[in-house]
Design brief:
alpha/beta, 283 residues, TIM Barrel, binds 3-methyl-2-oxobutanoic acid, 12 helices
Amino acid sequence: MSIINCQLSIQKMSVQSSTKVVTTYRLSEMKARGEKISMLTAYDYTMAGLVDKAGIDVILVGDSAANVIAGHQTTVPFTLDNMIYHGRTVTRAVNRALVVVDMPFGTYQGNSKEALSSAIRIMKETEADAVKLEGGEEILESVKRILTAGIPVMGHLGLTPQSINKFGTYAVRAKEEAEAEKLVSDAHLLEEAGCFGIVLEKIPAKLGQRVAEELKIPVIGIGAGGGVDGQVLVLHDMLGITQEFSPRFLRRYRALGEEMLSAISEYHNDVKTGDFPNESEQY
Ligand code: KIV
């Protein structure tokens, strides 16, 4: 390698490392100073690049990819290999955001040794920054064991889609006192175990605020009201690429699904009529 090339690669490396600014420590600082945390899902290189460029703090390679990308009814069928594939495509695009990869159903429940090896595979093969697991007390042993390897863990309580077959519904969780108290107690257990943050999904806003006030670690909500420390949405839902899913908590920022459909129809028409390609679009 020439001296100039060597200098250029050093320069590139230092730009990359100085722009990779969001760490779990930075998130805890944001909470401490009351700065809201932005989080969005991404499942591929192109979209993750856009999300990172927009300055989003945390990118979640969610197992919602099972629904949004793979067309499954639930997240249950998604595998570790599926998550690793998506995680790897995302981290290649990201320079700044913290990247969290969901551990899929069946890779951490009930066997903490398996949980640790699944988490290690995710970290080694995707080069992500952290993993996320659904559940509280019942998965605590797995959370603790993953943390022993120095892998940052994010919790997920409230509506936990991997347990949809147990719940039987995607309705709001923890409306009753007993379930709300269990959620608060689980949140404390996850914090005490060493999680760096928790996602709360589809619970009453008051409960979300209570958990955020009681915990020192950041609490990120999806349908958990405005009193939490940050918000997460599924990218394809907030962009309006997907249209069939319309919970109250979802704000659609664009109707890109309609835009895309109309562009594709126009192209179809142009091919059929011979309008595409024109003179300037050929060699
Ligand atoms: O998989 C996912 O997209 C998630 C979010 C809903 C938080 O877990």
